[in-house]
Task: inverse folding
């Protein structure tokens, strides 16, 4: 699994509420194998016209944001479907952190599996950051996972909370399957006792 | 767990959570044991991960599969499906066979939408932890289970270990008290809930639906309500098991039998939240105030009573919300202030894991009987067994005589992966769960409503207050 330690990069503002995973990765592309890459699929119908040309008004198509590695978005980012393709697409495009006031729970969990750090900051603060990014296109931000710190385009530092177990896995690039398999004896013992109590399951 | 923890009143959720906790780390992460893992034709990536790591699927006896997302519904002939869709279904067949997983395959009457099949077969039971790589897994919570959707990586984790690491969510109780009025269904209740608490209102929470209006619903109505918990941001929704639950499960193929049945029922009776159990958040709605609902925007929270009007973005509480509403109305081709009952529809879809069960089809058929659909309309039953039951009752005749298409089971036009699509700019009255931009097809305009409201839209060509078509009964 890819690790995340710290990142300093251009941040792109996506000032929309409830950006759902159907918009991040439309359903008609989901049969494609992971190895083919999902960069082009990201925000496909927001980014491209029917003829495949770019929609110039979409934020990621503006020259200042071509190198963006941090995405800042409105409340409930990644809501909807459980499709992990949404994380693949953000990752393959180059994003390594998404900052929002809240996330769809399943998207949030999926992000950690691919080295994409979802950062929750208060809604008012995200609003200020979005304004600042729109005023100075191409502005940079930094995210430090170890210190749980974000520095905004205005130089203001915020701290964020994160589940310590997930933080460790992400910092070290560890995948939880390997860790869980080391608990196999404990799982087997649990199941034996459980199946004695609930023989119908 | 301290002695205090065991003696204090507990919620239904807490009882299930603690009984499945194999280990809780000091940092709060809990390793949960999984009772049922449901898979479908979108599970390919997770099987690939297992193969790459050389890991076996640990508990095929607790894993059940059925193809639903990519299956054709115009016929059962997979050879006529586009190659990439056919491959998704064939990969599930191959993977399930190789792993020894029970598969309700295409051509088996038990095939259907995974969230219809689980309860129908009695695979989903009270007190269980049930997961599936699909966000609508909360559906199974209607039987008193803790059921939630997971992504492909978590699916592969469950396949390899039959466990998941989870942080304990918060709890929310939503109580609907009183009696639902004529023409007001479970779908209207959940749309009213989402309109009230918002599409992120339940984020980080497990919802328990309670109150007299929920108790008086059958299991199918409860399945509809729990199904859309994710549309309120909650990963799981649940209803305490009661007599209705037990009657529903009795005799189902995978329900416990004989002495185990009695043991199971005794256990299920112990699950409802204790008197005095504390929830992190409580929400109360008056059943009598809920009207038949229709969505007008591109988030399920954009729902209003059929007696209402398209809202005016100028009245939005924030600039962000105003811009969002303007974008949504432009996409939906609607004008602020327009009465919802004057909006004409181009197409009607009755189906999806939200509303494709026999009770849904019976209710819709009652509205359709003796009338004609004036726009293209289709019914996609949730499973082969639902379809067979409907045909045995003559419901297919009612729909066909009215000009509806009568299809085979699958997710179909709810998610559009199988090629059943709404054309760009077309307005679809849909009993599904998501009105997201492009959800039913690029440029498609989706309005969510109940099966009887969809039936009313089909026979009138516009959103119509179904109560006007119901007579006085």
Result:
């Amino acid at each position: 699994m890819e690790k995340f330690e710290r990142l300093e990069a251009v941040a792109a503002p996506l000032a929309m509420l409830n950006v759902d995973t159907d918009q991040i990765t439309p359903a008609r592309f989901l049969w494609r194998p992971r190895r083919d890459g999902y960069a082009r699929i990201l925000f496909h119908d927001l980014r491209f016209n029917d003829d495949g040309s770019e929609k110039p008004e979409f934020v990621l198509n503006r020259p200042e944001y071509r190198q963006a590695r941090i995405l800042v978005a409105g409340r409930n980012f990644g809501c909807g479907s459980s499709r992990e393709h949404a994380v693949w697409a953000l990752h393959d495009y180059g994003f390594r952190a998404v900052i929002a006031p809240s996330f769809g729970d399943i998207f949030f969990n999926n992000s950690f599996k691919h080295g994409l750090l979802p950062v929750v900051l208060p809604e008012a603060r995200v609003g200020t950051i979005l304004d600042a990014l729109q005023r100075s296109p191409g502005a940079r931000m930094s995210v430090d996972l170890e210190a749980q710190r974000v520095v905004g385009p205005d130089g203001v530092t915020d701290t964020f909370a994160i589940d310590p177990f997930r933080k460790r896995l992400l910092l070290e690039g560890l995948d939880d399957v390997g860790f869980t398999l080391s608990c196999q004896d404990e799982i087997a013992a649990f199941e034996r006792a459980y199946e004695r109590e609930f023989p119908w399951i | 767990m301290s002695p205090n923890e065991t003696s204090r009143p507990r919620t239904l959720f807490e009882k299930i959570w603690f009984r499945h906790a194999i280990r809780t780390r000091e940092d709060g992460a809990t390793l949960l044991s999984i009772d049922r893992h449901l898979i479908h034709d979108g599970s390919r990536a997770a099987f690939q991960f297992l193969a790459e790591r050389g890991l076996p699927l640990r508990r095929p006896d607790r894993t059940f599969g059925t193809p639903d997302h990519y299956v054709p519904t115009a016929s059962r002939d997979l050879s006529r499906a586009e190659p990439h869709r056919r491959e998704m279904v064939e990969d599930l067949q191959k993977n399930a066979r190789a792993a020894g997983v029970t598969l309700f395959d295409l051509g088996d009457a038990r095939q259907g939408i995974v969230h219809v099949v689980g309860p129908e077969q009695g695979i989903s039971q009270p007190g269980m932890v049930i997961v599936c790589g699909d966000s609508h897994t909360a559906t199974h919570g209607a039987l008193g289970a803790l059921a939630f959707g997971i992504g492909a990586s978590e699916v592969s984790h469950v396949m390899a270990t039959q466990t998941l690491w989870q942080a304990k969510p918060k709890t929310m109780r939503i109580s609907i008290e009183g009696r639902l009025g004529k023409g007001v269904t479970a779908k209207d209740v959940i749309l009213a809930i989402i309109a009230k608490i918002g599409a992120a209102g339940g984020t980080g929470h497990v919802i328990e639906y309670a109150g007299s209006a929920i108790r008086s619903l059958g299991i199918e109505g409860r399945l509809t309500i729990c199904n859309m918990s994710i549309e309120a941001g909650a990963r799981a929704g649940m209803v305490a098991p009661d007599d209705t639950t037990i009657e529903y499960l009795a005799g189902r193929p995978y329900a416990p039998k004989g002495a185990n049945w009695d043991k199971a029922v005794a256990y299920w009776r112990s699950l409802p939240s204790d008197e005095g159990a504390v929830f992190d958040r409580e929400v109360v709605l008056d059943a009598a105030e809920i009207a038949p609902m229709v969505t007008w925007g591109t988030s399920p929270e954009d729902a209003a009573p059929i007696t209402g009007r398209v809202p005016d973005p100028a009245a939005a509480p924030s600039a962000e919300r105003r811009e969002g509403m303007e974008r949504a109305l432009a996409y939906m081709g609607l004008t602020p202030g327009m009465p919802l009952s004057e909006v004409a529809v181009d197409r009607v879809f009755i189906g999806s894991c939200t509303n494709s069960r026999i009770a849904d089809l019976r209710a819709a058929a009652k509205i359709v009987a003796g009338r004609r659909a004036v726009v293209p309309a289709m019914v996609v039953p949730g499973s082969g067994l639902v379809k067979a039951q409907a045909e045995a009752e003559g419901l297919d005749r009612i729909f066909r005589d009215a000009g509806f298409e009568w299809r085979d089971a699958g997710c179909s036009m709810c998610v559009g992966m199988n090629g059943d699509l709404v054309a760009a700019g077309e307005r679809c009255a849909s009993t599904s769960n998501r009105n997201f931009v492009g959800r039913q097809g690029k440029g498609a305009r989706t309005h969510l409503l109940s099966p009887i409201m969809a039936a009313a839209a089909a026979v009138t060509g516009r959103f119509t207050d179904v109560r006007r078509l119901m007579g006085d009964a």
About this structure: The two ends of chain A are 34 Å apart (CA to CA).
